[in-house]
Specification:
Helix content is 47%, strand content 9%. The chain has 216 residues and is an alpha/beta fold. The protein has 2 domains: 4-74, Helicase, Ruva Protein, domain 3, CATH 1.10.8; 84-208, Rossmann fold (3-Layer(aba) Sandwich). It has a 4-stranded parallel β-sheet. α4 (95-107) links the parallel β1 (84-89) and β2. The longest helix has 21 residues, at 188-208. The protein is globular and about 45 Å long. The mean pLDDT is 90.
């Protein structure tokens, strides 16, 4: 756990509540020390660059949960056979977030998607948010995050988008590199073609992993 004495009373309460929730979810799968270490390191990932600290405990809890689920799959402690796709770009603020939004919208709960960045930004690209909202997909609940070793290892497919040599490589894993314009600094009109190209590629990927899209 982070140094609670350095945090506000509200954040202390939120982190203790997050730890209790994660203990309940992963009891019998991981030791308490592992769960709290993941929560602490997840909190640290966001603490130095967060604009609004009120949401740090929630972000840490969500990221720790994702990492623990990934570790459970890697270690063979839980694997429900649902395919996992990881979308990676540099800042995890535009392309990978739109891909995540499309994937979740089209696949529902029949496949899992995660996203990350080699140099995570501070917030989601506003033009990407607006472009996705135009097609009825809300990505405002997401936030830029890094990738971790267990998350990459747990993915069945890793889709990279412009992160070059910074993208992690593991032998035997399926990789795809999608060449797409970086929407950073672009207005929504310029982002729409990128959004639509991502939709087409997600459709193709879903067919390749035998997940029929819920919507057309």
């Amino acid at each position: 756990m982070p140094d609670l004495d350095s945090l506000s009373i509200d954040q202390q309460f939120a982190l203790r509540s997050a730890a209790k929730t994660l203990h309940g979810e992963f009891d019998g799968t991981f030791a308490a020390e592992t769960i709290e270490l993941f929560l602490q390191t997840s909190y640290d990932q966001f603490a130095d660059r967060a604009k609004v600290t009120n949401f740090l405990p929630l972000m840490a809890e969500r990221f720790a949960r994702q990492r623990l689920r990934a570790l459970a799959k890697v270690e063979g402690k839980h694997d429900d056979g649902i395919p996992v796709v990881l979308f990676l770009c540099v800042h995890n603020a535009g392309r990978s977030q739109m891909a995540l939004g499309w994937f979740n919208h089209l696949a529902g709960d029949r496949a899992i998607a995660w996203s990350g960045g080699s140099e995570p930004g501070v917030e989601i690209n506003p033009s990407a948010i607006e472009a996705m909202a135009e097609v009825g997909i809300d990505i405002t609940a997401e936030y830029p995050k890094p990738w971790t070793e267990e998350i990459v290892q747990a993915a069945d497919v890793v889709v990279t988008m412009g992160c070059g040599d910074a993208c992690p490589l593991y032998p035997g894993k399926r990789y795809e590199d999608w060449e797409l314009d970086d929407p950073a600094g672009l207005d929504v009109a310029a982002v729409r073609p990128v959004r639509d190209k991502i939709r087409a590629r997600v459709d193709t990927l879903l067919s390749e992993i035998a997940v029929a899209p819920l919507r057309r």
